[in-house]
């Protein structure tokens, strides 16, 4: 068990170093005009307020509720099946 714990910690430490380096490399590869245009667009959105799409939000909430209901039914069926 001790070796598994050490292995997981070394992997996490590697991720702490590699992930930021990968992000920095990705940002360096993006052309400056693209970054400047994106920053300008983000600033405009910040000034004007974020757009709200309530229909899309409602659809996502509905999907999550339906998934929760389905998962609950599956769990109940599994419990009933184990009893009978």
What does the secondary structure layout of this molecule look like, with pairings?
Elements: H1 2-29, H2 32-48, H3 54-83
Structural description of this entry:
- The chain has 84 residues and is mainly α.
- It has two domains: 1-51, no CATH class; 52-84.
- Helices cover 89% and strands 0% of the residues.
- The protein has three helices and no strands.
- The protein has helices spanning 2-29, 32-48, 54-83.
Number of strands: 0
Mean pLDDT: 86
User: First CA to last CA: what distance?
Assistant: 38 Å
List the helices and strands in order. Answer: HHH
> Describe the biggest sheet?
none
Radius of gyration: 23 Å
Q: How many helices does DSSP assign?
A: 3
Estimate the helix proportion, in percent. Answer: over 70%
Number of domain modules: 2
Structural class: mainly alpha
Poorly predicted regions are none
Which geometry do the CA atoms define? flat
Kindly estimate the percentage of residues that lie in beta strands according to DSSP. under 5%
